[in-house]
Automatic annotation (TrEMBL):
Similarity comment: family membership: Belongs to the CD200R family.
Record's bilayer topology term: Single-pass membrane protein
The protein's name: MOR1B protein
Pfam families: V-set (PF07686)
Species lineage: Eukaryota, Metazoa, Chordata, Craniata, Vertebrata
Cellular localisation: Membrane
Length: 176
């Protein structure tokens, strides 16, 4: 999320048309087209952050600026040339880093939360715990994972929560 992504599409000899088709997981499909014979481009229901990387007659790559969850899905580049039709397919997966936090609840128990991540984060306690993480899905495809520390022995005063995610890991200690 927030980064830019470039999907390559190589031009062939004698190109008559280049088309990018995007099928999002949610929402309307998008099409970008280019015809060299008339030097024209066309776009249908594509967001403003999606466009040719440079001039389509020189580089048919698609650039997606400030990638958001809405840009997750299938992308296909089709090049029509005198040598035939050529397809290149991509599936763009959007990762959203969770917002980790560690705090003490009203009962004095440690609570570790990894909010609105995609995919869901894994939450672990350094000391053994009887905790089972709770997951809450959100409409935008992100998930919040919450874990309450439940000690197996009563003399635990300090514990550490660790959050694991493809975008990076995090850990913090707390004494409640």
């Amino acid at each position: 999320v927030g980064d830019s992504s470039v999907l390559d599409c190589h031009l062939k000899n004698g190109v008559t048309m280049v088309t990018w088709k995007f099928s999002p997981l949610i929402g309307a499909p998008c099409t970008l087209g280019y015809r060299p014979d008339t030097n024209t481009t066309n776009r249908t229901t594509c967001s403003d952050n999606m466009n040719w990387k440079s001039r389509p007659d020189l580089d048919a790559s698609l650039e997606i600026r400030h990638v958001g969850i809405a840009q997750e899905g299938n992308y296909t580049c089709e090049v029509v040339s005198v040598d035939g039709n050529f397809h290149k397919e991509y599936y763009l997966t959007v990762l959203v880093p969770p917002r980790p936090s560690l705090y003490c609840d009203d009962h004095g128990s440690p609570v570790c939360e990894a909010a609105v991540g995609k995919p869901p984060a894994r939450v672990w306690w350094v000391l053994e715990s009887n905790s089972t993480p709770e997951k809450e899905g959100h409409d935008n495809g992100t998930v919040t994972v919450l874990s309450r520390f439940t000690a197996r022995s009563t003399n635990v005063t300090n514990t550490t929560c660790m959050v694991f995610h493809p975008t990076g890991n995090w850990s913090q200690s707390i004494a409640c």
